[in-house]
Amino acid sequence: MTPANWVQVGLIAASGLACAYRLRSLRRNAGDPTARAIFLGLLSLTLVFLIGLPQFYWPVHRLLGGTPLVPQLLQHCLAMLMAYYAEVFMVRVASARPDRAVQWRRRLLLVFLLLLGFCYAVGPLRLGLPILAPEGHADVSITVYVLAWQSYLCLVLVDIVQLWWHRPPITGKHLRVGVAMMAAGAAVALLQVAHKVVYQVTVNAGGRLPWQESGSYGVQAVLLVPATVLLMVGTTLPSWGPRAARRWVRLRRYRRMAPLARAVREACPELAGDDRPLRFQVRYQQRVIGIRDALIGPLRPFLREPVPGGDARAEARVIAEAIGLKRGRGLPVGGAVPVLTAGADLDADAAWLARVSDAYRRLGSTN
Question: Which of 79, 214, 320, 348 is at a distance of 20 to 30 A from 365, taking alpha carbons?
């Protein structure tokens, strides 16, 4: 396979995984039109790339009896569907009256699908073409066929950009970023549409360009790949973005708690346990619990009351002093049980302990 084919396989895998991921969300929200539009758009995109793979295209072509260009006709219809569902997603999140806006866009899709079928009959079917050549075709009916589905893509992509431009305020951070990525992807895809139309018109007029437009060595991948990635990530980011951001925050807190967790574990070997289970969530929880167990258990007699005010540096100094006394077999400080700051839940507690651990690390570097 050529490098372009390997890129195509990568896009098939990425869009297929995204499609499977969105299927889970669709099952949980079966009646959500936005979730349905995202899933169907990703499914159409996956099939577009799959049919375009030569190793898949020609067996399908033979399976269909060698009918001229049928697999590619299906590919072009799916590309129109993919663009339509991306447009529906944008309408749902950036339009004040989405149901009415979707209705006339659906009618426009049906009109262009019928137009594409007519152009197919008078063009590729009449000429008996098995596939559109990467170098274009000189017959005017092929130019009309290409213009039919590319015109629809152009209208949809322009609509996505203008919907983004005139959007109402979007409060969700990941939804706002995802919509902006979709608009950027649509803008890049518009360049690819313009290139395809200009290329075909040039060939039809008798000209010849020194590069292929499509195929394994076509330049369309240069524009199609970034456009596809931006559109695909933009439509899925509102779903996985918050989870990824939450995991990243937890991972940072987990690493920041490491100096304090290591110090209390060394000072309190009686509490040593397995800190490396497979699941990160379990490791994260155990790190918080391990620190707290040390503070309310072996270190408690050596803790004095920190300075009031919830200052992480003051609490770090108290903990460092208690660890020093415990290691040196010093005497307990006595007095009332000290009140240490704690978060309302696991994440809040981890955030506070991360601050205390940062202060503890800085204390160690100054000593």
Answer: 348
